[in-house]
Design brief:
16% strand; binds the ligand NCC(=O)COP(=O)(O)O; binds 1-deoxy-D-xylulose-5-phosphate; 45% helix; alpha/beta; 250 residues; TIM Barrel; transferase
Length: 250
């Protein structure tokens, strides 16, 4: 089974939020991603709604239900009461719990599975009771032991935080070391019967080596790098469209 791709729309939403205008439209971009074969959409609604807005969620849910019923909706975030209520109203196929503080610029670490164990058991029980699959954002730091604890929370999956790997884009030796750490943690999770997802700062360049080490990787969720590529590889055609709009013969 190949690794599935869930397209994270946060970066698109952040661009949209620069103006009080409805473009780039997150639903339209989500539709294009799913039509191109992405297996799902990911959003990370933060309390200040600086990227995805809570009001985006019903539209994205309807997009999947109406046009792509095989696709999955993955909602990521810190499980405040507000976040849990959003998940219950939206019924994503997967909820990824992330230990982000509201002040964080972006996600930069996994859960403290010892200190937060009881809290996570309660939250996961609540979400699973409502029919949602739950994944836990964890550090891929080469430790095996936390994966046994992750299993006892009731989670179905873990998502390896791949930020440190992504940060090694110009340092192959460090990248290889990070891959091995991710692999050891992934192997331990798999041995516990957990499915393994991964995400943060993944790119076309760094994905193949990661999947070579973790061939059973279930899903990657990618936003920043994918959006950057969409801009770069879509720029030439877009400039032609605008030149035509200027009356130029292109
Ligand atoms: C959970 C995670 O790894 C993050 O990558 C996150 O979902 C991205 O969120 P932002 O794009 O809002 O920083
Ligand atoms: N779960 C990680 C994610 O959804 C996307 O992270 P990034 O590609 O925007 O770094």
């Amino acid at each position: 089974m190949p690794t599935l791709l869930s397209v994270n729309l946060n970066a698109i939403a952040m661009l949209r939020n620069r103006r009080d205008l409805p473009w780039p439209n997150v639903c339209d971009l989500g539709r294009i991603a799913l039509a191109a074969g992405a297996s799902g959409l990911t959003v990370h609604p933060r309390p200040d709604q600086r990227h995805i807005r809570f009001s985006d969620l019903p539209d994205l849910r309807a997009l999947i239900d109406d046009l792509f019923p095989e696709a999955e909706f993955n909602i990521e975030g810190y499980p405040t009461e507000e976040f849990l209520a959003l998940c219950e109203a939206t019924q994503p196929e997967q909820v990824t719990l992330v230990p982000d503080d509201p002040s964080q610029a972006t996600s930069d670490h996994g859960w403290d599975l010892v200190g937060q164990h009881g809290f996570l058991c309660d939250v996961i029980g609540r979400l699973k009771g409502k029919g949602m699959r739950v994944s836990l954002f964890v550090d891929g730091d080469g430790r095996s032991e936390p994966m046994a604890l992750a299993k006892t929370t009731g989670a179905d999956r873990v998502e390896l935080y791949t930020g440190p790997y992504g940060g090694c884009h110009s340092d192959p030796a460090s990248a290889a070391a990070e891959i091995e750490k991710l692999g050891v943690t992934a192997d331990a999770a798999r041995a516990e019967g957990l499915h393994v997802n991964a995400g943060h700062d993944l790119t076309v360049a760094n994905l193949p080596a990661l999947i070579a080490r973790i061939p059973y990787l279930s899903e990657v969720s990618i936003g920043h790098g994918l959006t950057a590529d969409a801009l770069e590889f879509g720029m030439a055609e877009t400039v032609k469209r605008f030149r035509r709009a200027c009356g130029q013969v292109v």
